[in-house]
Amino acid sequence: MKPLEVCILAAGLGTRMKSDRPKALQLLAGRPLLAHQLDEIARLRPTRVHAVIGQGADMIRDAFSDNDAIHWVLQEERLGTGHAMMQALPHVSDNANVLVILGDIPLISVETMQRLVQSEADLTVLSVLLEDPSGYGRIVREESGQVLRIVEQRDADDREQAIKEINTGLMFTSATLMSGWLSRLNRDNDQNEYLLTDLVGLANDDQQSVEALLADNPLEVTGINSRQQLAAVERDLQERIASDLMSQGVQLADPERIDVRGELKVGRDVFIDVGCVFEGRCQIEDGVSIGPYCVIRDSLIGQETVIKSHTVLDGATVSSECSVGPYARLRPEARLEAGAAIGNFVEVKKSVVGAGSKASHLAYLGDSTIGEGVNIGAGTITCNYDGVNKHQTHIGDGVFVGSNTSLVAPVSVEDGANIGAGSVITTDVPSQSLAIGRGRQRNIEGWATRKKNG
């Protein structure tokens, strides 16, 4: 069997996007269009992947700098898809088969690509049936099924315009045949470009077999050339993701109001309310309930935990049976142990909150280690930054911290200690002791009356 090499034609300008970002880097479900393709292509296990890029080439290379499996090919002049392939083919092994993919078709599946590369025709293109084929090149067949040509809409006569089978831009052949056809391409067309679709006519001239395989799902071969098309594909993709989640046992309050922008792993009996956004790699275990309008990024949520409305988790680990929110924020390296509770307007950053501990409202816990069964009163903050360095706060098991307390790090509050409300704690507090760090109250009798009377 010949080795397989893949060529992605991703040098398109994307002028209709009206963006300084190359089309290949436009985001779909939180990831670049090209990233979606590369994931599926990797599952195909080709010998090599070539990506033809043009304007914004450095931006694209930088975005995929951690992927050393891509061979980048620069198309300095954009003279059509045929010209793009002319730049890539010299880097393809002479004895290889070549799969060509347009870079603006992000949802192509490995199953469809596998069907294409298993074809025994000399040249195989991928087509799809559309109820409204306007704007696309039509697949013109003879009675035997052989594809005679691909005709663009502006060049099609009335009979050809009635054809609903259109070209998707995917093509499979051998490097040897491709080389011969490319050498005979010309720019004798309205666009003054080398068009890869002209290979179909050249193959027929050479009496080679040309086959068109029909894609099963129009969504996976939908090209993206505008913001409107990008938004439409985004919605279609999110609908498919929502359906997959429900098939895994997730209850969605409204399948049309969830956005997954990365990888989301879920357990059974998970409930997700409306307006939630999941980014990066997230894992939600059995029985978790997530309230409306939460943003969860690169986080793990343990069994039976409740995340209340408008909560933000970013790089956090939440153990089982915890309660978080509403309006809470867990920043990177925040960790809640089993049964911990973080309430409204509490921010936790790079801290461990022990089992059964709670900070119910209006607190900041940063660079801290908090033991089990601790109560953090409203308005408490760990003063972890001295203007130059960050410092640690340690709070032992069973500590009670009164409201409006400032813990000036580095400082340690040992097991069972109590801190009076309104204290500023600057030195360590021994176990089982009471610490009060505030000015003594002084009452001046009659002061208010004298003030008013002058």
Describe this structure as you would to a colleague.
- This protein has 454 residues and is an alpha/beta fold.
- The protein has two domains: 4-221, Alpha-Beta Complex (Spore Coat Polysaccharide Biosynthesis Protein SpsA, Chain A), CATH 3.90.550; 227-435, Hexapeptide repeat proteins (UDP N-Acetylglucosamine Acyltransferase, domain 1).
- Helices cover 18% and strands 32% of the residues.
- The protein has nine helices and 37 strands.
- The protein has a 23-stranded parallel beta sheet that branches. Strands 5-4-1-6-10-7-11 form a seven-stranded mixed beta sheet, with helices on both faces.
- β8 and β9 (147-151) form a beta hairpin.
- The model has no long low-confidence stretch (mean pLDDT 94).
Produce the secondary structure layout.
Layout: E1 4-9, E2 27-28, E3 31-32, H1 33-44, E4 48-53, H2 57-63, E5 70-74, H3 81-88, E6 97-102, H4 110-117, E7 123-129, E8 138-141, E9 147-151, H5 158-161, E10 165-174, H6 175-182, H7 198-205, E11 210-214, H8 227-247, E12 250-252, E13 258-266, E14 270-272, E15 276-284, E16 289-290, E17 295-297, E18 300-301, E19 306-307, E20 312-314, E21 317-318, E22 323-324, E23 329-330, E24 335-336, E25 341-349, E26 352-353, E27 358-366, E28 368-370, E29 375-376, E30 381-383, E31 393-395, E32 400-401, E33 406-408, E34 411-413, E35 418-419, E36 424-425, E37 434-435, H9 447-452
